[in-house]
Structure formats: C-alpha cells, structure tokens
Amino acid sequence: MTFTQWLIFILIIQVVHGLGTWKLYVKAGRQAWEAFIPVYNAVILMKIINRPWWWVILLFFPIVNLIMLPVVWVETARSFGKNQIADTALAVITLGFYNYYLNYVADVSYVENRDLHPKTSSGDWVSSILFAIVAATIVHTYFIQPFTIPSSSLEKSLLVGDFLFVSKFHYGARVPMSTVAAPMVHDTIPLLNKKSYLFNDKLEENKTSLKNKFQLPYMRLPGFESIERNDIVVFNQPADTLLRMDRFNPDRNYYKPIDKKTNLVKRCVGVPGDSLEVRDGYVYINGEKNALPDRAKLQFAYDITLKGNVNTFERLIAILNRYDITDAPQALANGTIVVQATEDAASKLKNHPNIASVARRITPKNTDQNLFPRVPQYPWNYDNFGPIYIPKEGETIELNMEVLPLYKRLLSEYERNEVVTRGNQILINGEAVTSYTFKQDYYWMMGDNRDNSVDSRAWGYVPFDHVVGKPVFIWMSWDGIKNPRWARWFTTVGGSGKPVSYLIPFLVLLAVGYGYNKWRKKKKAA
Question: How many CB atoms lie within 10 A of CB 508?
C-alpha cells in the first residue's frame, strides 16, 4: 500500500471508531466530536480508560499495535462496567466492534476511577506477559536484535555458533513493512512451521497492487552513522526465495516482503560510488587493493596433497587444526583434499612432513561461473569479477544495451520501475531513456571466506532499504552443542587487535547489581 492508500485507510478507521464510541465519550463527560479527531481521539480515550497518554504512541508502532489494540478494546469495555470473561472475549473476537453494542444497545454507565489492578493472579500474570512482549518487540524492532551466525562466510572474524547483538540504530532503524505479523519472529513461526506474517507470496512480482496489501512503504528512522567500507553488516538477502536458501533463482515467482527476506551477515567491501573489481580473489576499489581491518582474515580454497602416515580422518583433522584450519576438508582423488585456509596457514602447512604440496585454486579470467549478472557478455567468476560500478543515490549513469544487464534487476525491483527493451532502445515506465539517476544507495557485500560464500558476486547489489543493522557484540559463542568458546563471550565485533572478552566484568557487575537490589529491598522492608 502507498502512503496515500494508508492515509485513506487510517481515516476510515477513525470514522469507524467515532461512529462506534461517540456516545461512550459523552457518557464519560467528553464531547461527541472528540471521538472523530485522529490522534486526539486516542489521547482522550486514554483519559477515559484511565491509562497513560504514551499508550497512544504504542498504537502507532507496527506489530506492537497488534497487541495494544485488543488491550484498548478490553479496557474500554471495562471502563463501562463490562468486566466479565465473556465481555473480554467478545471485545477481542469482534475486533473492537463490541463497542458498537455498548454504544448503541447496552445500558452502560461510565466507571470513573476504576481499579486498574487485575482481580486474579492469572490476570496479573497475563498483563505482565503482555507488556513484556510489547517492551521486547520495541527493543527488537528499533534498537537491538539478537542474531545467530548461520554460515562460515566470515570465518575467523565471525564463527558459526556466534550469537550477536545487532544494532538497529547505528544506520537508522527500519520501520516494519509487514504490518500484520507475529512479534519478534522473522519469516516462520517456530514449531508451527507457518509463515509469521500475512502476505500472498505466490503472486507474480508485477502484481504489486495485490502483493503489497497490508504492507507499509519503506521508512527508516535517522541513524548516527553511515555504512563504511569493510563494515560487517546484517541485511536481507535481495534475491531470497527461501524455497532453497542455497540456490539463486533470478526468475523466481515466490515473492517475499523486504523485511521478511532471509537475514545474512557479510562484509561491505564496496560503498556507493565505488568502482569495484575482484582480481584473483582480492578486492580492488577504484584501482587500489582494499585494505581490510587487522581482525579480518581472508580464506581461499587450497588443494592439499598428502603423503606419509595420514591413515585416519582424525589424524588429518589434527594436522589441519594445528594450523588453525577448521573447515571440514573435501576429499578428492589421488590423496588430495580441498580446504579453506588463510594464506599464512597455507604457507606454514607446506612445512609439515605429511604434506606433499599446497596449491591455491584460482579460476582464470573469462571463465564463466554463471554469476551476476548472468549474461554471456560478462563471463565472471568468484576469483575474477568486474569491474563494476556501485550506484549512489542521486548519481546519474549513461544507460545503454551494454550496461543494462548490470542494472536491469536494480531498476525494476529495487527502484520500482517498468523496464522493457525494443531493439536497441531502453524504455523505463514507457519513456525512452539514455541515462538514469538512482533513487537510493547500494552496497557490495562479500564474505571473507572468499571461495565459500554466496554473496554479491552471486546476486548483485544490496539496496540500502535491505539493510537491517550493524553487529556490535558477541554475547555467546558455541562450537557445537556442548563446547562453549569462552574467549569469544562478550567480545566486540568491531575494533582492532585481538578480541577481549568482557564476560568476567559483566558477571561481576551482575553480581553487584543483584546484591544491591537485595540490600535495597531489605532496607525498604525494615
């Protein structure tokens, strides 16, 4: 839905609310017209139900308002003496239209200064759980989101089994676009294996008027920093279908809203305005080799030829682990294996008595691996890719048939244009064009584990509206189910030098806080 459509929808809701409550407003000592004025009517309603004014703000938070609206419906009924379980059920089941019965049919009186405390322990429990969910949803959506590392694409910097806190406010929190969804759940509801949001994901992509029903337009709160080159970023995978997360399908017919696409974490190696090229696995920006932070450790694929007494898999793993090579090796014929390793580890591994040779795998230029943009004129591969320009908001490029494959998906899906060609002519929204000005910034995301990462080389640019946030903290880390990596607990994601764990200071601070709280309660009781 567009902003105009949402505005009309909200105005209709205000009329529905006014028609269903204006007599109740009068019985509470207010004026009938106050029930019809947007926002103001909500402020007055909070006074009527004897609840704080800031509840009005919660009513305008997507997802949070799905919890708050039923609460307000129930509280309205209780403010006019309807306290029974049946009244509560009717208020919720009828989606608030129970107020029409109270307004026009029932003989009710306003209960001023009613007791707001739950009458039973179960009621108190439900109330506490409800507002805990509201608070957690606000924090999760606009401030900090927990995230688990799903793959080894950033191995050595971030490991599979790391649990992160991702900041939403560094780059500006994105307002949820899927308005009817379960709180604090991403794509699928756990255990139930059902979609967590209301959306028709089987429609063709060009049927935007239907697929965007109940969808808010993209909005983002102001952030206090921009994405910088080499930042680690969490984002929604632009080409996500989720039918198979490990396969890219450029002609997909399984649509997902932006905020419900799969969350990924990669390193931003190219920012808007950069000219990027990959040469033998190394990234070059504007012709110069990209200098990575000291914590970043690039890994590449190496062919390892064994010799001597390496007769068990356990023996092989022990040799590799000695050189900090932790990825499981892939076996090939003639006593050769493939591993992912840093250059330093591979260089040292050559000196082991059971290693005959170590050779890095590099795919030559003009060897097509069917990567972005997936056309014969750009035969790029993981090791040799580009050069390619990364679009910047407000920048204008020359548009012709040669470069169109690089930008066609961007122009149609991310910039919301209709793009067609007639011979050598390019038409955007029905008009012939020879240039185009970009509407938003784009980024190039890649993994440090260069030959074991599905990233921008596979699916292209990442628009800013797909950016989720910035990982700032590893609060827990496990190697498997039973092996905690204590040295990684409570470490920062950014910074230089070896990561330092703040677990002990955190536990001390937690113990001091707990002790102070116990002392304060005892003092208050005395």
Answer: 10
